[in-house]
Specification:
mainly alpha
Length: 134
């Protein structure tokens, strides 16, 4: 895996994950008539999706470059486990007192933790990680 195509994979995945998170935020906000923009804004969503997807791409580039593609499945499993572990921080997060319906916040934030990994793994077959072993 070359750095150029790997980083393109990460950036494309980040763009799709960011758009999915923004659309989900808009739909959730309108459906439940809540506003969590003070703690969960669009810029933070884009930044975290981009950071997560680029780090996943760097992991793929390094692992597949060094060990081949046989470790890609374990890497995917690690990314999914990290997505689950990242949710734990949401349960200890304290919202400001002026925010209404704080019990609805996990329903908005938890799915967003899976968008980067889901997007990254969805686009992985299109970036020829397995081409080297054919």
């Amino acid at each position: 895996m070359k750095w150029k195509s790997g980083l393109m994979h990460g950036l494309l995945s980040a763009a799709v994950a960011s758009v999915a998170a923004i659309i989900y935020n808009i739909l959730y906000t309108k459906a439940f008539i809540v506003d969590f923009s003070a703690v969960l804004n669009t810029g933070g969503t884009i930044f975290s999706s981009t950071l997560g997807c680029v780090l996943m791409a760097v992991g793929y580039i390094m692992i597949t470059g060094r060990y081949g593609t046989k470790w890609a499945g374990y890497l995917n499993l690690g990314y999914v486990l990290l997505s689950f572990v990242s949710i734990l921080g949401l349960f200890s997060f304290h919202l400001p007192l002026e925010i209404e319906s704080p019990e609805l916040f996990p329903g908005l934030a938890i799915p967003m933790h899976f968008f980067p990994a889901l997007s990254f793994m969805a686009f992985a077959p299109f970036f020829n990680y397995w081409k080297e072993e054919q």
